[in-house]
Predict the structure.
Amino acid sequence: MGRSTHLFLLGLLASASPFVSAQSYGSLSPASPGFSVGSGSGSGSGSSSGSSGSSVAASSSQSTIDLAAIGLHTLAKANGLLFFGTATDTNLFNDTAYMQIVNDRNMFGILVPENSQKWQPTEPTQNDFQFANPDRVHSVATANQQMLRCHTLTWFQQLPTFVTTTAWTRATLTAAIQAHIANVVGHFRGACYSWDVVNEALNDNGTFRNSVFFETLGTDFLPISFLAAAQADPNARLYYNDFNIEFDNNKTAAALSIVKLVRAAGGRVDGVGFQGHMTTGQTPSRAAMSAVFRKFTALNLEVAITELDVRQTSLPPTPAQEAQQATDYVSMVGGCLDVEGCVGVVTWEYTDRYSWIPSTFPGTGAACLFDENLVPKPAYTAVASVLAAKATGVPASATIAGIGAGLTGFVASSSSSSSSVANSNNNNGQNVGSTVSSGSNTKANIPAAEFIGNFGGSPGLIPASSVSATSTTNTGSGSSSATGSSSIGNSNGGNSNTGDSNGGGSYGY
Ligand code: 9MR
């Protein structure tokens, strides 16, 4: 029996309400053809356009499903995943349209500070710790009842000058790592679902990267870091996180060796993060991806996709390129869905407006699920669709019109002009305004009851029963992450400097 999907769906049935309350975003609506997904129960369902704040009635056994309204996190939860999330940071918090989507826990159930928890911003000079910015990210997550993935501790980039210039000995660098981790992890104790303890320790050929850590300590910097993190927060899941380990190559094998190495030294590693910085047309198949994940879960590890984006190699993308991107996103997310022990997916910014890709790889980009106008792309619909299909158990027999081959799980039919009315309430007590989605909608047959009620509860909290059987000793730890029970305050200045002063690093992906 896979995950807790069936129990979860039973729970949804039990809490069913007569309405599917949908929300949407102004920027999502008319400009996103094929976006809303309605059921085969007839065009009347949910088509009362223009009535502000109304709900979409489930008038028969099936109802209109708006994949934007349901949101990726809610769909992921329906599959037994713990989260679908995004990176974000304080330098973007004054973009209200952008934040409206970040703040939607149906869309994103976990946030990751894109830069502000890194070593340079948190300890710019030795023993001087600065937490105002990451505290603000945590406060936003707490207010939204979202979890927090914490990122990152021992990494060769975004280091303060004192780390890169001090003439370290083994003893002094060990002490510096331990002090950094004790303070940073200690500050966020109880707030983090997981920590990326060591990030990107490997070269692409699988050898160790020549960082100040490796040069001074050899591989000992790995167990030193994991032991310090375990001591500072016994309940946070501790991850090794890297890119280009998705292809089952030497680097993949080296990542597995890192887990064994740390454990042999008495350290605790709970998970491996697959960053998932992919390129269109160069992404493993869903089956290949799940096979790689299983190599890790076989070691009693959880895995997650931690920084997903799929970049286009030429811009602007053609419809064919967008279809390829949709397929690639589905390979990644589907690969996770197919593996018990893959706990969730995080995108590295959800919109092209703020993606790191174009400045690092000029001429490439358009890598996110939403474009720079915050309009969801075919890749969004594809990911939402594959999550919906898996959750409902609809036979994987059809493709979604307009998105391309490779998407299964729906009985697709096109409808020319149906529109869905979005509710003005995001089920978190927050008024998010009402919009009307219209245009050429893709239709799908989705049993309504399996989604009804999914808006209730606390998607940002981790029920102990949802924690994968393959994860290690920390069951239930995440439940404290969204409750705001830690000592982290909410009063920070408006400083928008996330410490992102070291960008455009010298390594490639
Ligand atoms: O997205 C981050 C970007 O804003 C920073 O300039 C960059 C600095 O190196 O780091 C980016 O995030 C990286 C993440 O922390 C680790 N994996 C690779 C990500 C993209 O470079």
